[in-house]
């Protein structure tokens, strides 16, 4: 096995990096892939919370790096999906406790046993981002369809390029068809025109994401939400499958509505 | 008056032609007896002694056959007048050989063959520019004293700073400064010129929000103001 290291980043905070990391990890594990998530957001860990593994943490990333435990001991196995693991972040330390070369070494050690190593990076372009970027084979940039988030995504894409880790791929999260249709939100086309990178996922705004996160059970576990489906589609694309994008864009919504109206009249 | 006499008179001024060349002076001798023409040459030189002082002389003797004694005397007499004879040009192989024996050049550096002249004339020197084939993304900056050419987009938050002009073969939505050192002739061209801010030679352009389809535009200073005009192939 030779795992692919995928770093999830965004620049701007709160756009859905951790949500995406958790859900892609779950979706990939459900495709029978061996997946380990690394929480790169040292000091502000929350990937463990979203994955519902908080109460099982004994060792963390900094313990591994500083030699207080072996990697295996810091890897929490998810009981729901035996091929899914988490290496949590330390909550008490700052980001300088880990260096980019530590991250590269760690990933090298994990590569033999895994199919995917998913690194959730912190917001910003500082040390934590550099740590998460260093071992990456692929960078997925998460953005929301709004100007400031796209601007930061653009910056990250440029930095990824400059570090010769490009081209990054794009996940557009929290797409709200109603707002896009009213022109209150950028459309997928607007975003792609500016960022000009490959789109690998479009995730709708979906209440169930928040509910699921609070429960420690990411939406991807169940297949009954739009966001969950979108994450599964994204995971399949990561595995090389051709999956068409879901009908969550304004135009399609409009067409659906039109179709409904016609039906109504016909009745 | 006899016509042949007139001919001689007409010919006389032409029998000794003097012109300046890169290497000094070139004297071309016309037809006529060597001794006569030599005599009138020395006469002329004596007349304009100041002009010939220290001159470097090449002499075209035409078809004349001259021997070592003739050329030797010529050189010595010129040397007396402080004139250096360095070359003898002649169509006569004998004269050429004699001159070479005396250590004189038989060729003056004529301009090099045509081909090279042409290539010099047709290649225009141009100015320094840097070329980037990429998208300039938010937070990135391209700086140059010369001109800047971007084959790609300049995204919002990206910055281009040039001593000269700026050409963006793409959409230009970032901050662009041309002629930062005060060059008022600097221009900014883009296929879609929609910058966050545009300055030429320190003058800030207030660009109205574009309406309609993007068109190639050229921004330059006209009457102290930065003006963007749609590129028009007919009026450049
Ligand atoms: N598709 C979605 N629909 C609805 N809510 C979402 C969606 N994606 C994310 N959220 C919510 O947005 C909030 C921020 O998400 P998340 O923590 O994943 O962002 P982040 O980029 O990791 O933030 P940070 O930069 O702080 O690490 C959370 O409350 C999450 O539940
Ligand atoms: Mg996060």
Can you give keywords for this protein?
heterodimer, A: 267 residues, alpha/beta, Rossmann fold, eight-stranded mixed β-sheet, 12 helices, disordered C terminus, B: 236 residues, Transcription Regulator spoIIAA, Pectate Lyase C-like, six-stranded mixed β-sheet, five-stranded mixed β-sheet, 6 helices, 25% helix, 32% strand, disordered N terminus, binds adenosine-5'-triphosphate, binds magnesium ion
Please, could you describe this protein's structure?
The complex is a heterodimer of chains A (267) and B (236). With 267 residues, chain A is an alpha/beta fold. Chain A has a single domain, classed as P-loop containing nucleotide triphosphate hydrolases (Rossmann fold), CATH 3.40.50. In chain A, 43% of the residues lie in helices and 16% in strands. In chain A, strands 3-4-2-5-1-6-7-8 form an 8-stranded mixed beta sheet, sandwiched between helices. Chain A is globular. Chain A starts with a strand and ends with a helix. With 236 residues, chain B is of the alpha/beta class. In chain B, 25% of the residues lie in helices and 32% in strands. Chain B contains 6 helices and 15 strands. Chain B is rod-shaped, with a radius of gyration of 34 Å. The N terminus of chain B is likely disordered. Chains A and B meet through helix 7 of A and loops of B. Adenosine-5'-triphosphate binds next to helix 1, strand 7 and helix 10 of chain A.
How are helices and strands ordered from N to C of chain A?
A: EHEHHHEEHEHEHEHHEHHH
**General form of chain A:** globular
Structural class of chain A: alpha/beta
Q: In what order do the strands lie side by side in the largest sheet of chain A?
A: 3-4-2-5-1-6-7-8
- Average pLDDT rating of chain B: 85
| Count of DSSP-assigned helices of chain A | 12
The largest pleated sheet of chain B is described as: 6 strands, mixed
Ligand types = adenosine-5'-triphosphate, magnesium ion
Q: Which residues of chain B form runs of ≥5 with pLDDT under 50?
A: 1-11
The structural domain count of chain B equals: 2
How many strand elements of chain B? Answer: 15
Average pLDDT score of chain A: 89
The geometry of chain B reads as: rod-shaped
Largest interface: A-B, 11 and 11 residues
Order of SSEs of chain B: HEEHHEHEHHEEEEEEEEEEE
Distance between the termini of chain A: 58 Å
Low-confidence spans of chain A: pLDDT under 50, at least 5 residues? 249-267
CATH architecture of chain A: 3-Layer(aba) Sandwich
Beta-strand percent range of chain B? 25-35%
Kindly give the count of domains of chain A.
1
